[in-house]
Design brief:
Number of helices: 21
Distance between the termini: 6 Å
Low-confidence stretches: none
Structural class: alpha/beta
Strand order of the largest sheet: 6-3-2-13-14
Mean pLDDT: 93
Helix content: 40-55%
Largest sheet: 5 strands, parallel
Number of domains: 3
Radius of gyration: 29 Å
Number of strands: 16
Strand content: 5-15%
Shape: globular
Length: 527
Amino acid sequence: MKSVKIHREKTGLFSDLANELVYQQDHLKEFIQQEFSLEAFETQMEKKQANYPAANRATVADVLKTNYSAGDATEAQQKNLALLAKENTFTITTGHQLSLLTGPLYFVIKILHAVRLAEELAIKYPNQNFVPIFWMASEDHDFAEINQVNLFNQKFSWTTEQTGAVGRFTLENWSEFIDGIKALFANRPEAEIQTVLESYTGANLAEATFYLVNTLFGTEGVLVLDADQAKLKTLLAPVFEQELTKNSSFYAVEATNQELKKAGWNAQAFAREINVFLLEKGTRERIQYDNGVYFTDSGTRFSREVILEQLRHHPADFSPNVILRPLYQELILPNLCYLGGGGEMAYWLQLKGVFEAYGVVYPLIQVRNSLMLIDEATQKKMENVGWETKDLFSDVDAQKKAYVLANASELDLTEMREKQQALIDSCRNLVNVVDSSLTGYLEAEMTRMSKQLDNLEQKLIRAEKSNYEKVLNQMDQIKEKLFPNGGLQERSSNFFSFCADGDVQTHLAKIKAGIDPFEKDFVVLYL
C-alpha cells in the first residue's frame, strides 16, 4: 500500500492557524502547556499523575465498567477496563458528534489516530498503560449538523421532530433510515457489513452510536464514553456552581482572546458569562442571569438558592457548553492528549486560562492525521489521464487545457503567433515612416487581430476537447471523488463508501496502516 505525503500548506486546504498547530506549536506556546512531541508525554504524565484525584479515576473506571457490563466488551476492552483503575494508566482521547453512521470519514480517522498514538506510547513508555477513549458528544443539540450521511453519492437522512440533546433522542422512524442503508448492501447478505448495521440500534442515539463504534473499534480496545451520566456530572458539579456564581471561565477566556488577538489570531469559540446549559426533556437551553434571577429562553426561572439546590441533587440536569466540555473531559479522565481536526483544536487555544482557574492540567493537543483515500478505480483513472499525486491539487480546467494542447500538435499556434508578431513589428515600422498619426489606429487593429487569434485558439481547443471527452470526464470524476464539492474528501465522504464489498475490518486496517501519529503532512493513501 503506497502513501504520498504533502506539506499541508502546499495543498491550500488548511487554515494558517491549523498549520501552526501542526508544524509550529512553539509559536503558540503562551496558549498551551507544552508543545506536542513524543518526549513531552513524560512531563505530561508527571503533571497529570500529581493532579488527578484517585476518586475521579475510581468513578470513571466504575462508570465505564458498568456501561460494558452487558457483555459488550471485547477481550482488548476488558483488558483496558481493568487497566483504567490503575494509577499508571493514562488515556488518549478524541471525540465527535453523534454523526449518523459515523458521518464524515474523519470520524474514523480520529479514532484510529488515537489507537495508533496509544500503541506508540506503549512502546516508548513500557511501564505505563495507555487507553484510547472515544468521547461521544451526546449532549450536543445541533441535530441539523448530524442528521444526514453521504454514501455512494446518495444522501440518507433520519427524520424526527425531537429536540434537545441528540444523544437522548429515541430511535423513532429509525428503520426508515437504516433500511435505506441496508438496501445498498442487500447483495452482500453474508458480509461483515450486515453485522455492523445490525449493531446500530439501541434505546436512543447515544446507545446506538455506542454499539456502532464498539463494533467497529472494539478489537482495538477503544472505550466509548458517554459523559451524560449523573455519576460523572457529580464530579463536574463544583465547576457548574462556580460558573453560576463567579463566571470564572468567561473572564479567563476573555483575557486569552485579547492575547490571541494581539498575536494575530481570531477566537474560534464564544464564551458566555455562564457556560452552562439546562437539560430538560426535549430541550438544552443556555442558562442566563439578570437582576438576581437565573433563567432560560423558554421561561424557566430560578433563584440562586433553587438553582444551586437543583445542581446538588440533580447534576445530570446541567450540561457544559463548548468552553467547559474540554475541562469536563480532563477533569474526569486521566488524559494526556486530546486530538481532533484543525478547526476543533483551534478553540483549545482559548482554554488554558479556564484550566488554570479550575486547577486542572491542560493536556497536550494534537491535530489528527489528515488522509485522502484513493481506491483502485480512481487509481486506474489517474493512470488513464496521466496524473500523479501532485496533479490532484492543480486546477482541473488548466489541466484539461494542458492535456488537449499536449495531445493535439495541430493546435500549436506558436509559429502563427510569431508570424503575427513579425507582422505587427513591420506595420509599426511602416507607420512610423509614412504617418505616425496612424499609430493609435494600428494598435487597435493589432489588438483586434490578437483577440481573433485567441478566439480561434479557444474554439479549436473546445472542438479538440470533444475528441478527448472520455479522458476529460475522468479528470472531473477524479476531482469529485477526492474533493467532493471542492472540499476535502475526509470532510464529506463516509467510511462505508469504501466498503462496497461488504468487508469492514480489512478497510479499517488499511486506514490504520496509513496513520502515523507523529506525521504532520497531509497523507494521500493508495488503497
